[in-house]
Amino acid sequence: MPVPDYLKNNIGRINSLPPQNLPAWNSNYDNKVFNIFPVMGNLRRKFPNKIISRADIVNLFRSGNSYLGFVAAMVWGYINASRPRVSGGDRTTTNLYRALSHPEQKVLNAIKNAEHYFTMGDFRTPFKYMMQNGRYRIPGIGYAYFTKIFFFAGQANTEIKIKPLIFDKWTSNAFFALLSQTHPNEISKFFRAVKDGKKAGSPGVISLRSGKKLSNAYVRFVELMNYWASSIGVSPAKLEEFLFGYSLKSGISQTNPRRELWKIVKFNRGLVV
User: Fold this and answer.
1) 126 DSSP assignment
2) Could you give the count of Cα atoms lying within 13 Å of 254 in the half-sphere of its Cβ?
3) End-to-end CA distance of the chain, in Å?
4) What is the three-class DSSP state of 193?
5) Quick one: how far is CA 113 from the chain centroid?
């Protein structure tokens, strides 16, 4: 299978990528409304400086503390903890509160189920099970967040050979760009629209197709990302982290992968039909 030119041209940058350095979590996660959940106290004691790294979360999963790992992954990923999901609602309707309200054992069952299928190389079934009305659906958790659970569980489990990866706005943008350079005929299978950013030159939003086509997109994303990573001699996690880029607020650098990949998206937007 072909390797995207963007990856071949950036092997050095990918190899030299330093570990992701995220700031401390904000005060929303310390709001007293979350104090009724003992796991939030555990999280604060585990990370008194309020800084969580990818390695920290992998270690939680690896040590068997998957539930704390799950919560850490949600906070690390900045899950909504302040904006009500319903008109007139309060923080008890936020995605974090809804997720924490879900029984711990059901969360652990969802993780265990996903790992079972991952060891067999099946990424479609757990994705489907975690979607709306799925058997292992966790309230407040969409695919941008439950694929974070997939990612950390996969990194911690040595029996999972093909690694599940995070599939959010930035990595799906990257997937469009890289797919357009290698398998342009597949773009319309998975994507239905490209919308420009609000500011000139800023990355916009790509809409994925729904239902079965969405799970198919994730399977193809994982398959190709693992292959591309192997082809250029890096881990899938390292490749995903590079493609994720960094906050646009941290500067206007045109070498931010988020901006570079968006240029490729715009050039190939005509592939969406």
Assistant:
1) H
2) 4
3) 24
4) strand
5) 19
Residue 251 has, within 13 A of its CA and on its CB side, a CA count of: 7
In order, the DSSP letters of 146-199 are HHHHHHHHHHH-TT--SPP---SHHHHHHHHHHHHHH-GGGHHHHEEEEE--SS
Give the type of residue at 255: T
Listed by start position, the domains of the chain span 5-18+166-271, 31-156
What number of residues does the chain have?
Answer: 273
- The predicted-structure confidence for 67-119, as pLDDT tens digits, reads as follows 999 999 999 999 999 998 878 789 999 999 999 999 999 999 999 999 999 99
Q: What is the DSSP letter of 135?
A: T
Residue 44 in tokens: 């604060």
Q: What is the value of pTM for the model shown? A: 0.95
- Between CA 33 and CA 162 the distance in angstroms is 39
Give the position of tokens 């604060």.
44
- The residue with tokens 């992998």 is 58
Return the residue matching tokens 């270690």: 59
- pLDDT, one tens digit per residue, over 41-63 is 999 999 999 999 999 999 999 99
Q: For residues 124 and 85, is the Cβ–Cβ distance under 8 A?
A: no
Beta bridge partners of 267: none
